[in-house]
Design a protein that fits this description.
single chain, 327 residues, alpha+beta, BirA Bifunctional Protein, domain 2, 2 domains, seven-stranded mixed β-sheet, three-stranded antiparallel β-sheet, 10 strands, binds phenylalanine
Length: 327
């Protein structure tokens, strides 16, 4: 018995398992139901006098453990789940993969893009880092104009001024310079302002900019487009156009939406100022156009009935997981 044990011990130690085939041979050699050498030893155990049986039983069990260990080591190196220590267990559930969900702001963004695609708008992107001309001067906001104060931003360098854009209206300039009318364009992206973070404002937010230039585009086209957008998003929500001022539109208006017994401002709009068209070499005698700029965070607060925009940027999975969308 002792001899056999020593021999098997040595064999277990020296056996090199390199492939799954080796593994199977190894398993059968020692643990095979009929001829496995350890199985045979277990059978022989019965013939051994009772006093020694316990000691030998222990030793043989140790050897069995060594065999299983070796098998497990092979499995762990080859990354196959091994439930019983002997074979692949197909009943073990797979590793679950967390599926993501879209950020609420992306859902609104995609809905707006979808709506404007339906009425013939083209989607374009613009850079977040802008120069003074595209962000201010070309939009009829000269260097000492007071409206620059409302759009203080983060400057990356001075002289020449390079800054984080304060609105998506800079995309109007970039697009109009490269294309000749007619065109209908939508752009959505991040804009930056030097503002204190609060429930309604942040140093970064998202805007959707739309503009349409053609012969005889009028303010009623603008109103119609805004009504189309708001009705598609909210059903028949009450909105109002309030006269306002932007250096790059004339006339200009602010659009408010009636929600929970108060009017909330959601966008600025107006007819593109002829001076802006001149700045990008479009003949303002032939062409006219409208533009609007919409705050996506504000809009989402109303759509999702929330009170604080900071929640959009907290990266709290419990909040983000709640949004499911086909967009
Ligand atoms: N750019 C303006 C803002 O950010 C919004 C706007 C866009 C107004 C287009 C009129 C036309 O406040």
């Amino acid at each position: 018995m002792d001899k056999k044990i020593d021999q098997i011990k040595e064999e277990i130690k020296c056996f090199h398992i390199k492939t799954y085939n080796d593994l199977e041979i190894f398993r059968i050699k020692f643990l095979g139901k009929k001829k496995g050498s350890l199985t045979i030893l277990f059978k022989e155990l019965k013939k051994i006098p009772i006093q020694k049986r316990k000691t030998y039983g222990k030793i043989i069990n140790e050897l069995k453990k060594e065999v299983k260990n070796k098998i497990n080591i092979f499995y762990s190196k080859n990354e196959i789940p091994n439930n019983k220590g002997l074979q692949f267990d197909p009943t073990i559930p797979g590793k679950s993969i967390e599926t993501g969900s879209r950020h609420p702001l992306s859902i609104i963004k995609n809905r707006i893009i979808d709506l404007f695609m339906k009425i013939g708008f083209t989607y374009v992107d613009g850079p977040e880092i802008e120069d003074d001309w595209h962000n201010f001067t070309a939009l009829n906001i000269p260097i000492f104009h007071p409206s620059r104060d409302m759009q203080d931003t983060f400057f990356l360098c001075k002289n020449p001024d390079v800054l984080l854009r304060t609105h998506t209206s800079s995309v109007q300039i970039r697009y109009m310079k490269k294309h000749s009318p007619p065109f209908r364009v939508l752009s959505i992206g991040k804009v930056y302002r030097n503002e204190t973070i609060s429930s309604r404002s942040n140093f970064m937010f998202h805007q959707a900019e739309g503009f349409y230039i053609d012969r005889k585009v009028s303010f009623s086209d603008l109103k119609q487009t805004i009504h189309y957008l708001i009705n598609s998003l909210f059903g028949d929500a009450k909105i109002r156009f309030r006269p306002s001022y932007f250096p790059f539109t004339e006339p200009s208006a602010e659009v408010d939406i009636y929600c929970d017994s108060e009017w909330l401002e959601i966008m600025g709009c107006g007819m593109i100022d002829p001076q802006v068209l001149k700045n990008v070499n479009i003949d303002s005698e032939i062409y006219s156009g409208f533009a609007f700029g919409l705050g996506i965070e504000r809009l989402s607060l109303i759509i999702y009935r929330m009170k604080d925009i900071r929640i959009y940027f907290d990266n709290d999975i419990r909040f983000l997981k709640q949004f499911k969308s086909e967009f």
